[in-house]
Amino acid sequence: WMPDYCRTINVRCEYLPLAFGRPVLDRVKYDGPRDIPVAFYGGLGTRIWDQGTLAMAAIADAVPEFIWHGYVSGSFAELPPSLQRAYREPLWGVDYYKALMRTQICLNRHGEIAGRNGALFGNNCRNYEVVGCRVALLTDHAGELGISCCKVYSDADDAISAIRQMQSAEYVKPMRTYGQFNILENHTYEHRAVRFLEVVESL
């Protein structure tokens, strides 16, 4: 919304979305089974992510195979019991991408700050990382990727229903294949660099 707002006050503003780092696929090699059925990678905690934390807790309650690798904002002891059971250590860098490549379905959520007037924006890097690694993405906002590359949920109940649907390999195979193709064709940092240079040259 910021570019649109800036235009109303006659200020030029360009939006460059985040992207996927193509070299990840060369550096992180994994040909084994996808033995992590459902996962969330990221931060939770009611201190600043109240809605997302409660949604993930409901999912963890309903989906026993759900695990969460991440970090906590606030006290771990204050998290719902279902999230405490699902918790695993944080993963970073190559270890994170290796885990992604073992994952069948990955959940994403955007913090409450990532929106305006109640509408969320698909503006975090997880969307790109997950789809770029050919994982089935279940997110609360598709952003620039579009709904052909992922499935979008509206609340915890919707996410739980979607997980059951997505556990069919035939359902997610086209999504995973087209999603990674779309990422590599349109949403890498090389693409963003080209756009950035176009903006600079037009100044």
Describe this structure in words.
The protein is of the alpha/beta class. The chain has helices at residues 2-8, 24-27, 50-62, 81-86, 93-101, 126-132, 156-166, 169-186, 189-201, and strands at residues 36-44, 66-72, 87-88, 103-108, 115-116, 119-120, 136-139, 151-152. The protein has a 6-stranded parallel beta sheet with strand order 3-2-1-4-7-8, sandwiched between helices. The radius of gyration is 18 Å and the shape is globular. The model has no long low-confidence stretch (mean pLDDT 90).
Question: Brief description of this entry?
Answer:
With 203 residues, this protein is α/β, with parallel strands linked by helices. It contains nine helices and eight strands. The model has no long low-confidence stretch (mean pLDDT 90).
Report the strand count. 8
Q: What is the averaged pLDDT score?
A: 90
Level of helix content? 40-55%
- Distance separating the two termini: 22 Å
Shape, per Cα inertia axes: globular
Main sheet characteristics: 6 strands, parallel
How many helices? The count is 9
Question: Approximately what portion of the residues adopt beta-strand conformation?
Answer: 15-25%
* Main β-sheet, spatial strand arrangement: 3-2-1-4-7-8
Class from secondary-structure proportions: alpha/beta
Helix/strand order: HHEHEHEHEEEHEEHHH
Radius of gyration: 18 Å
Low-confidence stretches: none
